[in-house]
Amino acid sequence: MPEKISDIADIARNLAEVKAAIARAAAKVPRAAADVRLIAVSKGHDADAAQACLAAGHRLFAENRVQEAETKWPALKERFADARLHLIGPLQTNKAAAAVRLFDAIETLDRPRLAEALARHMDEIGRRVDCFVQVNTGNEPQKAGIAPAETDAFVRLCRDDYKLPIVGLMCIPPVDEEPALHFALLREIAKRNNLTELSMGMSSDYEIAVEFGATFVRVGTAIFGAREYPVVS
Ligand SMILES: *Cc1c(COP(=O)(O)O)cnc(C)c1O
After folding, report:
1. CATH topology of domain 8-224
2. Pair 105, 130: CB distance under 8 Å
3. Domain ranges for the chain
4. What is the pLDDT of residues 218-233, one digit of tens each?
5. Which of 120, 138, 184, 188 is 20 to 30 Å from 176 at the Cα level?
6. Is the distance from the beta carbon of residue 233 to the nearest atom of ligand 1 less than 6 Å?
């Protein structure tokens, strides 16, 4: 069932505001706003919130946990067959098969064992899922992602040995640093690997990401408001 009318209206209005901000940021560069796809990050919100966003005409979403996505998205995808879902949180190897079944893109490929598991499950299930390599642009020890210096070799391994459909790179800059430096670094690594898609920018910095070439921005709070329940990432 839909949420309260006020929440649906809030989400539709926030969505329109974020799209307008993307268009303004794109015009500064300038680049075509249509080349920036907005991913609505519905983690931490229930299916009603995602449904309100779908009802407003939006079709591209992301979740950061396989288990949480499994509670909401099979039913939503039945009703909105053209909805697409990206995984943006760490993926354990033992959840790789479930991720291949449910998601349309996996943005957090960051290690050889996961590449092997995804390739095997895609073959077994008969479903190709676009992959982004997550790069730990800040070389933060606690953070997921492959080190910038190891990214070229890892992309080659994924493409050549595992034949994975690698479409681009993804990053989450360190919270206390200038995101632009990280966005520029991600763009440079993508360019030298002939990768066209750049997933970068969240509620706090998506406009900067657009200026630095993002083709996907991942926005949660600015669309849905504060998360209703805590999210492990
Ligand atoms: C939660 C999350 C987002 C969205 O964050 P907001 O600040 O709510 O926009 C984007 N990317 C990743 C990887 C996330 O985990």
Report:
1. TIM Barrel (3.20.20)
2. yes
3. 8-224
4. 999 999 999 887 665 5
5. 188
6. yes
